Amino acid sequence: MEHMLHNFTPGNASSPDLTLCPSNATLFFLPATYMLLFLTALPGNALSLWVFLRCISTISSTHIYLSHLSISNLLLSFTSPFLAAYYVWGSVWNLKSALCQLVLHGITPVLHINIYISLMILTWVALSRFAVLIQHTHASRPSTCTTLLPHAFFIQLSKESFANRVCAVVWLLAVGGIVPVTVYYSVNEAMSSQTDAGHGEVCYNPVVEIGGSLSRMLSVAMITMFFVFYLLVLLSYMTVLRHIRRSRRSTNVSTSHSLLGRVLRNIVLIQIVLSVCLLPYHIFKAIFISLAYHQHQPTPREYDDCHPLSTIVELKNCLLLLAALRGSTDPVMYFILDKTFRHQTIRLLGCNQSNSGGRPVLLSVTGSASQKAGHVGDGHTENLSQDGV
């Protein structure tokens, strides 16, 4: 489902007699999975946000980034029931109905805002991890980035005040880039679309799902932005991996080796999340735009009143769902990646009950021995191990 405009070119125009024919994937699979997203993302991200804001005494730049990501995921979870209803009853709702207009111009923007906020925030998490590792670990040869970029740049990346400013800009870019297109569609295009389609046009239709020239231009811009950020993350992680390999050859303290191993695991996990959840949708979206643009003018008799891109539209919506499902898995990612978040979540859930000796069970995980080990090394190991991803 996109912010799609009605001004089609002749090559991909939709005949008013052709409709999208939803299969069981749209009528059952998508609604059920969006409801599962609601049931898992809402409590998971609410708990995550509570831990970030109320349970962690020393907030790092990574915690700030992840707390904003949790807020975005919470907003997405509230919209999931409406998206489920759209796929169940979108073929019945009238295009002018209040529920249809709410989903198209209120709910759908939140979904796309969440995707690109996640992309930008995870990119900055990668850059902040890159900066901290470059500063606080030692390699046999200095990284090229330390000579090309000023030292003040690395200092700023790890500051909490800088993280707050970055998150404000991220929200501004995501909301400012998507909402104006929605407003333009609602004010300038919606009425003409409804007039041309007629009073019987349903909400789930080719005009909404395939789109027109302005929405296609926006989609191309979003796809380009995704690959720029994705390649930036990949480049920063490859640089960190190279630095880690050099550091392992030159570092003599065992706790530093353990730290570098954890960072390596975290880098791989975050890259997998980006590649599995967001990459397929953006690759297929480029293919989808090309197919829609070059689609010849169909006739109702040729396709038995079903639009020829009905199946392609359903595949696009399934991949969009895959991108949205990241909202449910993000709290699990926080738990795996961030040591402080993991310990505070276990404590909050009451898993640190006292054992027979009266000592908290949590001390077996974060006891004095591990705390002392955190101080060994170059003096920055404890800060790195607590500083999240």
UniProtKB/TrEMBL annotation:
Keywords attached to this entry: Membrane, Transmembrane, Transmembrane helix
Residue segments, region Disordered: 370-389
Gene3D superfamilies reported for this sequence: Rhodopsin 7-helix transmembrane proteins
Subcellular location: Membrane
GO cellular component: membrane
PROSITE patterns the UniProt entry points to: G_PROTEIN_RECEP_F1_2
Residue span(s) of domain G-protein coupled receptors family 1 profile: 44-334
Domain of life, source organism: Eukaryota
Main location: membrane
Pfam short name (any one): 7tm_1
GO MF entry, a single one: G protein-coupled receptor activity
Transmembrane portions of the chain: 32-53, 65-89, 109-132, 166-187, 217-242, 263-284
Entries under PANTHER family matching the protein: G-PROTEIN COUPLED RECEPTOR 82-RELATED
Protein name: G protein-coupled receptor 82
Taxonomic lineage of the native organism: Eukaryota, Metazoa, Chordata, Craniata, Vertebrata
